Structure formats: C-alpha cells, structure tokens
Amino acid sequence: MLTLILFWTLVAHSLLLVAAQDFTPSSSWRSPNVTTSQDDRISIAGAALDKTAGFLRSDGSFNDSAYGTPGMLYAQMAEFDRITNQTKYKDVLKKYFPLMEAVRPNFLDEFLNYGLSYGYAAARAYEVYQDETFLDYAITSWTSAGAYTLSDSDTSSGSTPGKSFNVQATCQGITMAGGTFWETDQDNPTIVGLATGSYLVVSALLAEATGNKTYLDAAINSATFIHSHLYNVQNVVQDNISARKNDSCSVGSGINPYNSGLFIEGLAILDSISGNATTQNLLRETIAAAVTNNAWQGDDGIIANWDSKVGDLLMMRGLGAVYWRNTTYSDMRNYVKEYIGVQYNAVLDLATSNGTNVYGASWVGPPSAVFSSDNQTTALSVLINGILLKDQEPPSSNTSDSGSSSGSGSTPDKSSSSPAGAIAGGVVGGIALLVIIGLVVFFVRRRRRREKTRRSVLLDDDFSSSSPLAPTPFIMAPLTSTQSSPDRQPYSPTNSQRSEKVLAGGRSHIGQSSMGEKAALLHAQSTVSLQEGDSTQPRSSTPEAAAAAPGPSNEEPPRVNLPTEELVRLLNERLQAGGHWDEDEMPPEYHTAS
Ligand SMILES: *[C@@H]1O[C@H](CO)[C@@H](O)[C@H](O)[C@H]1NC(C)=O
Ligand SMILES: *[C@@H]1O[C@H](CO)[C@@H](O)[C@H](O)[C@H]1NC(C)=O
Ligand SMILES: *[C@@H]1O[C@H](CO)[C@@H](O)[C@H](O)[C@H]1NC(C)=O
Ligand SMILES: *[C@@H]1O[C@H](CO)[C@@H](O)[C@H](O)[C@H]1NC(C)=O
Ligand SMILES: *[C@@H]1O[C@H](CO)[C@@H](O)[C@H](O)[C@H]1NC(C)=O
To answer: What does the alpha-carbon distance between residue 537 and residue 467 come to, in Å, rounded to a whole number?
Structure first.
C-alpha cells in the first residue's frame, strides 16, 4: 500500500511538472507587454464603454443585436466600476434591468445563455454595488434557467417539465443531471456548453455572494456535467450533447473558445470560494489547453476564431477572472497576464482606427468604421481586463502573495510549481517513468475494485440528506414574442453540424469539426469513471421560489461554512476520480459529420 501511495505521488508530481512546463509564454506571441499606463488604459476602456452605452435605446436594448448582448454590456459596466472604484453606472443599471425583464419575463429568453447574461450581470452588479435589488434579478434569472437544467429527479423520472421528449438518464454510465438546455423550445434536446457554462458561472457567483448551498450544489452539478460529458482528451470543452432518450451520446465536437472560457471562469470562482489542489489542477490544464489551442488562434496568440477571425468575449472574461481573483499559481498568472496583453495590444493596434472608439470583432483586423454592439462588447472584454494588468511584476515575489481576498481556500501545494520544485520534480518525474510499467498492472487491478465500490460509497454520503426526492413541478413562465432574435437560424438536431449562437450577440456560425475515433475513445476513458456524479441532488427551482425569495439569504456566511467546504471537497473528489476507466466499457458511439 505504501508503495502504491509512493507511485501515485510520483506520477502526480510528474504530471504537475508537465503542466508547469506549459506555462512559459510563447516567444511567437505578438506583443505581450502592455506599455500604456493604467490611467491611459482606464480612459481607453471608459471611452469605448461610453461610446457603447450611447447606442443603448431608452429601453436598455440595442437595435442591432439579440436579447443577450445588452446583458454582456451591463456586466462590463459593473466590472469597470469595480476596477475603478466608482458607482458611475449603478443608477443606469438599476433602470435597465427591470426594462429588460419586462421584455422577457424572468429574463427567460428562447436561448438560455442569453437570459443568463442578465443573471451574470446582476450577480456582478450585486458584488460591486452591494445593492440587493441586483441580487434579486440574479436569482430570478438563475431560477428561470434552472427549470431548463436537468435535475436528478428529471433523469430518474425520464422526463423534464419543459421538454416533450423522454430524457436520457446517463451517457457513458454518467448521469445527465447538471446539463442546461440550449433552447426553451420543448422539442429541442440539445444541451450546450454555452448554456451549462453560463448557468455554472451564475450559480457560482450566487454561491459566493450568499453562501447558500443550493447555488453551490448547482455550480458543482454544472461543472461535473461539463467535465464528464463535454471535456475532451485535449482538455477543451466541446459544444453539445443530446439529452433525448435513445439519441446517440456522441458529443457535438465543435471547438470554440467560449465553452472553455465559461468553464475557466466557473472554476476560478469555485476556487475562490474554497480552492484546493484539484480545482487548481483542473483550472491549470484547462487554461493551458485554451491558451495554446490552434483551433482558434495562430502562432501570434491572437484569438481569431472561425473564418471571420473573431475574438472571444467569454474567453477573455474567464481569463480576466483568473487574473484578478489571484487565487492561482504565479507562473500561470503571469502566463495569463501575457496572453491578455497580446489580445490588448492587438485590439488597440489592429481592431480600431484611432480616435473613433469603434472596435471590430476581429482582433487581427482590419478595423471597421461601423459600430456593432456585438463587435464592440467583444472588444470591450479585452479593454476592461487590460486595465487590471500590473505594470511590472516583481520577478519572484508572487509565489507567496496568495493571500487573496478569499484566502480561506488556500492552496497548500502552490510552492510545488516554483522553479526549485520543478527541477526536483523533473528528477522525480524521470524516476516515475521507470516504474510506470509496474504501475499499469496495479492500475488495472485497482480500477476494477474501485469501479465496483465507488458508486455505492458516494450514494451513501451525506449529500442525500438534504435532497427533496419529489420532482418539483414547474409552471412555465409565459414568453413574450414581441421581440424575436433577428438572426435566428433554423436548427436541425439530427445534423451534426449546428448553427452556433454565439455570446450574447447572436452572431451565427456553422461550427464543424470531428472527433476521431481515438479521441472518442480517450474521451470515454477520461469521463467514464466519474460515476459519482450520480449522487448529485436535484435543484428546486420553481419560478415561485424565486419570486418568493426576497433578498439575500445570508444565514450561512460563505467562507466559514462547513457544508460549503465539504461540498467543494466532494466536487474535487469527483473531479479527481478522472483518469481511470473501466476497461470493459465500450467507447461511445460516434458519428462523424456527414
Ligand atoms: C481602487 O481601490 C483599491 C483598494 O482601495 C486600490 O488598490 C486601487 O488602486 C484603486 N483603483 C483605482 C483605479 O483607483
Ligand atoms: C428506446 O429504445 C428502446 C429499446 O430499443 C425502446 O423500447 C424504446 O421504445 C425507445 N424509446 C424511445 C423514446 O424511442
Ligand atoms: C494609433 O496611434 C498610435 C500612436 O498614436 C500609433 O502607434 C498607431 O499605429 C495608431 N493606430 C492606427 C490604427 O492608426
Ligand atoms: C462585426 O464583425 C463581424 C466579424 O468580423 C463582421 O463581419 C461585421 O461586418 C462586423 N459588423 C460591423 C457593423 O462592422
Ligand atoms: C437558498 O437559495 C434557494 C434558491 O434561491 C432558496 O430557495 C432558499 O430559500 C435559499 N436558502 C436560504 C437558507 O436562504
């Protein structure tokens, strides 16, 4: 047994070393150093923000974008105020939220991620202004999206109130609970990373703001779903999966930056609430994969997705959260800083004409003279996060400055990524390689035992004590159809190419790529063992509950709350279980794009 522990330690350490080696900024990146002063960066972002806000109509919306885009801007307004210690946009935001809620009751748009952009903005506004009106809006949005998120009772009963079809209980033996549907359309079975990731982030922000375990449970369910079903062998979050019974469990393999961006932001918030080594490692591997992914960027490091070479708001937002929350290892933080710096310089050099304050969506250029609310908010994500970048970081003092605002979740083994640790780790890692062969035997035998016991152990844990077992009836909120998304694309769930609804803005794009058989097999291997996901509990999420929830539920302060710590620990255990697979399990069915 002792030998086993030693082996695992060695392997874990060598894996960590691999991750550490990835965090050297690439020498081919274009212009990573931001040389303008912070004051200048504040004026640049402020001017772009004012320009954008000037295009809002009196009802709080834009005339050129879908329902979600103003919500993205609202969040940026609050973030700008947070960074600059102001309340400049507070009053205007208090005016706009109810107007946008009037257009879509409970902020429930036909596309779940659009509605959740208001939940996100409101949660950020609450964090910045501490005004409970905003918390109420965030809870309202969270609650309406929760009705389109699969609960344990949905998967066990095989149906969910908002959908007409029978629900698939599991894929690869892992529960489908935790996935959020793309659309309210009762016939659309597609669960997407965009909606699930948005729900994850809003849940995590609400958990952080209120300490209420319900939100933390929801965030953990979403994160577990993404990790189990959408995360691929390259550590990238893929696009979608069907939740309809008897549909193939193949994953829609579009690779887009926003899916990973949302996952990164969600993990960064969970890590702030109560971080530990496992959350950190998942965050690290996801960031390493995102920042180097050549599906959406060239060697210059500028995000340029699809043929139109567009930047990505949600990836910037996620990395910005990693940077400012400062819960992370210093090597990774510096890596993220330089990567944001690349985007920052690109946007200013290539995506705008001086003096116009109008920015294009393509950060590799050329600039456009015409204002577009989607393109502008996409660039604003860079301008605002660019303000945060420190002018000059002292070379090596950062390893110990982990005393972040939310420091209770300290990461005990942070120092293991220090240069000395890396060197030592290299030696140890080399030795570890020699014993891997012996380990494989252990692996196989141990895995067999584990797979048999894991499920029952986790089902017996104290999670279940607080779960209401009866399904919560849901009365669907009426949808107004006075405004419809101008650019909605027809969608055929049987076509493995899908039309993407991107960000809040509703740019549409046909995304396609295919996962080869090897990748599919590895994907199965990396997810199958997360069967503990079955022990997650149902959320209660009726609109009535939201309407009845008057203010913040502050009975449990977030960071001293034992159940909270316990839950995060359990999350980490679940995520940690990855990497082992049941060799009897078949690879998932996979249909390549036809
Ligand atoms: C905002 O306040 C914080 C803490 O008081 C300070 O560190 C930061 O520099 C301030 N930011 C600006 C832009 O004034
Ligand atoms: C799913 O497949 C099973 C077994 O083939 C079949 O009995 C059942 O009717 C199918 N369900 C649906 C909803 O198609
Ligand atoms: C904008 O102005 C800066 C300095 O004033 C210059 O370096 C940059 O090339 C200009 N960019 C464009 C697109 O004209
Ligand atoms: C917004 O960006 C897209 C992608 O670069 C571009 O096709 C479109 O023309 C831009 N919109 C405007 C109004 O410039
Ligand atoms: C926690 O949040 C849920 C969902 O909004 C709510 O129903 C519940 O009353 C809250 N719990 C507490 C203790 O405030």
So the answer is: 6
